[in-house]
């Protein structure tokens, strides 16, 4: 039996005016019954409210235009533009989707399809830091699963373990942490690993991971094992969007941290010690086929 719904809309191809009440009498008259609603109320129910884009001010629009000018096809700027949106709000909100769609002359559905495909784009507000624990096979058996489980409980807000992409504390505030489990982070030789804002912390244990997140919650920024010094998620998102600090010397100093580990280079070192070399590359690479223009 159909329950009356307060929509005033149509369903199953049959139209019903506001204030009418129908009961379904068969497949061709599968009409949701209605009660009195105004056309404005009906529109508000079936059309999502236009999000407020004021958070994306002139400087964000200018950056978006720089991104668009980088590519022959404007839609190619979508991935970096989603990072730009995340640098502003800490996630990709409905407003962020609308902003990208407007800038790139795409539909909201096209932007949403991309934003929901990649795990690097977050659909809930994130903390100051994003902690990603590798729970892929090798790290998992070396202790990644235990690290994740320990952090889920340790970072709990209310006694129940955090779930994937839940935040400990208030999103955006100093010391807040979003926790996620991640697939292979391409550092299997140093597992179990975790990342904070995509910077590596190698050879972790549940205890060292707890010490790390406690330091983050106190507002500290412990040095990663390799790579650049730690900042915060929104700063990293801006860098992923292609924008770096004006003080280039300071920035270069920050990213010129050690990136290789002894374990990572062991194979190359072994080959060098034994005089092994890779086969020579052909003089001329084969021509790539023409790609049909879309
Ligand atoms: S399995 Fe964890 S880095 Fe590869």
Report on this structure.
With 294 residues, the chain is α+β, with helices and mostly antiparallel strands. It folds into three domains: 1-47, no CATH class; 58-115, Arc Repressor Mutant, subunit A, CATH 1.10.10; 129-254, 3-Layer(aba) Sandwich (Glutaredoxin). It has ten helices and five strands. Strands 2-3-1-4-5 form a five-stranded mixed β-sheet. The radius of gyration is 26 Å and the shape is globular. Residues 1-35 have low confidence and may be disordered. The structure holds FE2/S2 (inorganic) cluster. FE2/S2 (inorganic) cluster binds at residues 134, 136-139, 184-188, 191, 193.
Q: Which labels suit this protein?
A:
globular; five-stranded mixed sheet; 2Fe-2S; 294 residues; 2 iron, 2 sulfur cluster binding; disordered N terminus; metal-binding; Arc Repressor Mutant, subunit A; 3 domains; metal ion binding; alpha+beta; 37% helix; Glutaredoxin; iron; binds FE2/S2 (inorganic) cluster
- % residues in beta strands: 5-15%
Helical/strand content category = alpha+beta
User: Any low-confidence stretches, pLDDT <50, length ≥5?
Assistant: 1-35
Please write the string of helix (H) and strand (E) elements: HHHHHEHEEEEHHHH
Approximate shape: globular
Termini separation (Å)? 49 Å
CATH C-level class of the largest domain: Alpha Beta
User: Please, what is the average pLDDT?
Assistant: 84
The major sheet is characterized as: 5 strands, mixed
Under CATH, the homologous superfamily of the largest domain reads Glutaredoxin
CATH architecture of the largest domain: 3-Layer(aba) Sandwich
InterPro entries: NuoE_dom, NuoE_N, Thioredoxin-like_sf
Biased composition (Basic and acidic residues): 284-294
Family: Belongs to the complex I 24 kDa subunit family.
Cofactor: [2Fe-2S] cluster
